[in-house]
Amino acid sequence: MRPLTRIVTNIITFTLKFKIMSVEKKLAELNLSFPQSAPSKGIYKKCLVLDNLLYVSGHVALNSDGSLIKGKLGKDISDEDGKAAARQAGLAILGSVKEHFGNFDKIKRVVKLLGMVNCVPDYENHPIIINGCSELYVQLWGDDNGKGVRSAVGMGSLPGNVAVEIEAIFELQ
Q1: Tens digit of pLDDT for each residue in 131-166?
Q2: 20: pLDDT confidence band, cut at 50, 70 and 90?
Q3: What class, spelled out in words, does domain 3-172 have in CATH?
Q4: Domain spans of the chain?
Q5: Which of 149, 27, 11 is nearest to 98 (CA)?
Q6: What order do you get walking across the sheet with 149-155 strand by strand?
Q7: For the residues 85-92, what does the mean pLDDT come to?
């Protein structure tokens, strides 16, 4: 290998290793772990790679033991608890990404999140709830790569009466 090629290869390798350690180190520093994943009742893949995009199916809000975080915003649970549920759904997504790839080295950026909030018909704080996931991803990948486009919508119900469900699209390196 030519010296310049070796130097460039070493720089790229160092950058990727730093990024891997960075996301996992940040999760550890935040004292966050992935919730146990619940078995699926549907027929689908959790993750699907197409070209340079990773599509992640909707993940519901789970406690660390894998139990569902249930409730309807505007009735059963507070906005603060709903926001925490969105963060847990975001962690569940990351758990599936890590299960799929083994680490986070292929993730370049968040492209899009679709956040669904189980709520009463006149509820209005959907974006605040889904911020729980968005803020987590910004903490992990920074403002440029952790913040993608997003939709936050209200639903009359979600599977198992969960408070939040989120799906994601990531760009791959």
Answers
A1: 999 999 999 999 999 999 999 999 999 999 999 999
A2: very low
A3: alpha beta
A4: 3-172
A5: 27
A6: 47-50, 53-60, 164-172, 107-118, 149-155
A7: 98
Query: What is the number of residues in the chain?
Result: 173
Pull the structure tokens for residue 103: 């680490």
Work out the number of other CB atoms within 10 angstroms of the CB of residue 120. 12
How confident is the model at residue 73, as a pLDDT?
A: 98
Q: How far apart are CA 131 and CA 128, in angstroms?
A: 5
Q: 120-124: which pairs have CB atoms within 8 A and are 24 or more residues apart?
A: 120/72, 120/73, 120/74, 120/75, 121/154, 121/156, 122/74, 123/73, 123/74, 123/154
Higher per-residue pLDDT: 96 or 22: 96
Burial per residue of 34-60, b for 16 or more beta-carbon CB atoms within 10 angstroms, e otherwise: bbeebeeeeeeebbeeeeeebbbbbbb
The band of 171, judged by pLDDT with boundaries at 50, 70 and 90, is: very high
Under 8 Å CB-to-CB from 36, ≥6 apart: which residues? 62, 64, 65, 66
Helix (H) or strand (E) holding 23: helix 3-29
